[in-house]
Input
Amino acid sequence: MERTLVLVKPDALQRSLIGQILQRFERKGLKLVGMKMMSLSDAILREHYAHLADKPFFAGLAKFMKSTPVIVMCWEGVEVVSTVRLLCGITKSREADTGSIRGDFAMSVSCNVVHASDSVATAEKEIQRFFSKDELFEYDKTEYAHVYSDDEM
Ligand code: UDP
Ligand code: MG
Output
């Protein structure tokens, strides 16, 4: 089953939004298979945001991402990578769809409350980057029978 990585960013911690953000993924019917709090190092941020390393905002972004610990979550579900991107909304929060996390909770491009993996290949790398094997779990979620039809599973 597909898995994706979500970070709840420092602005969400400062604004006491962790519970409301987690609830968005839970109520959609996704399965939580890993979760922890951690402080991000320069090394992990350089790797995680390698595609942005030459951007003028990179130093500010790294400073922001280190300003508090973050919540790291791994969610599982059918086509969960694209589903979670839709739940999060586009990067520029002011233009994110109402009903999405960024659309409902954020006004900024940089302080946009969540990170979500952007492809299945990226998700695999990001999950490995943030979780060790023993921090990820497999278990039966009984409500899955009501969340998906048989042919999707
Ligand atoms: N970011 C920023 N300024 C920009 C573009 C991005 O501060 O002009 C930050 C923002 O926090 C964003 C992160 O860099 O979420 C990663 O950028 P990406 O383009 O990967 O967007 P995302 O995948 O998070 O929507
Ligand atoms: Mg991205």
The CA atoms of residues 43 and 90 lie 26 Å apart. The longest strand covers residues 31-38. Residues 18-28 form the longest helix (11 residues).
